[in-house]
Amino acid sequence: MNYDFSVSAPREDTNAEKYALREKLFGTNEVLPVWVADMDIDTPCFVLEAVKKRLEHPVIGYEEVPPSMFLAQIEWMKNNHGAEFALEEMLYSHSVVASMNVAIEAFTQKGDKVIVQTPVYPPFFHSVIEHERELLKNPLKHREDGSYTFDIDDLKSKIDKKTKLLLLCSPHNPVGRVWRREELEEILELCLKHNIVVFSDEIHCDLVYVPNVHIPFASLNQRAREITVTAIGPGKTFNMAGFAISAVAIPNKELRAKFKNVYDRIHFAHGCSLSHAAFEAAYREGKEWLEALQIHLLKNYRMLDEVCKKFGHRIKLTPMEGTYLAWLDCRGLGLCDKELRDFFVHKAGLGLSTGISFGREGSGFMRLNFAVSSAKMAQVIEKLQKALQEHRN
Ligand SMILES: Cc1ncc(COP(=O)(O)O)c(C=O)c1O
User: Fold this and answer.
1) How many Cβ atoms from other residues are within 10 Å of residue 368's Cβ?
2) I want to staple 3 with a disulfide (CB 3.0 to 4.6 A). Which of 15, 18, 53, 292 is the partner?
3) Which domains are assigned to the chain?
4) Which of 121, 177, 204, 246 to mutate to test ligand 1, by most ligand atoms within 8 A of the CB atom?
5) What is the pLDDT of residues 22-49, one digit of tens each?
């Protein structure tokens, strides 16, 4: 089947967060929003069809999570990522961030340290602070070529007896890394040595570009399986975040019991019947659509790269291995963080996420979501080009 990403449905009047919050975030509705991590690309038809089919039954009462739903995800994870999970290891969650918060409650006490590798998706550090745990910041190392890696020496020097949990972002939002096996193994060795549980947020695992390969942390080896809580879901991959559904895989019985204890106490329940149908259809039928999407996203990324290169050192695109979030090194523009945001809003008419919101290390950077239709991408490019042209003159 041919999938067409040339245009997407308008979302302005749909209550879409990306559009509805423009005035609040950017002080104007006159921006093309390329911030929050969902796509301006239509949710695939096979997902929508499954929901329509479910609606043919006139009762939407309480529903158990159907085992077939998790089995579809287990099969997907095995076939596409080489991860082996069993049905009894899977738990429903309405949100990966909520699962992360359960993990913090379940595996740490007030005052314990939780490792976070900045710059990173803001709920990573907000969740730690809000639970009154101590943030152990292990900033990523910024390399010569603009890419990032773990700073293992820094981590070694900071871990102590109070360090109980590591929140891993894999692939990494916003720096676009798909961690290599050797990198993950170094983290694993340290966590094993110090009895640290790993919460591995792998929500972006399907959005990875060849030759990069996503390696689920739990799949590294048996010992990794025993200390890892993996969060995975179809929300990013199939642009269905509005269904609010994901899963947590916890192979270790003891960790699962601890997690379940908190999870049951705050009543995660079983989610929405329509989401169950959408989730299963996505994993059962989504392979071909995803392959077409990846080609489209790469095309968008290359267009962005070309514009940045055209204007020399002003904006440098961080090498991207995964996710649809470009991490723009804007330090060459010579603007402070507020000026940088204003430059994009007022000169380019684009609403990006500020780098500084991902941690202090994000100062001078901006994050641009390039998961848009070809028509929208052409607008993004035109706006950016015009603003950079003006800046040069
Ligand atoms: C790394 C990462 N984790 C989690 C989420 C949000 O997941 P959820 O909506 O399931 O809480 C995002 C969304 O941008 C993300 O980038």
Assistant:
1) 24
2) 292
3) 17-43+287-392 (3.90.1150.10), 49-285 (3.40.640.10)
4) 121
5) 999 999 999 999 999 999 999 999 999 9
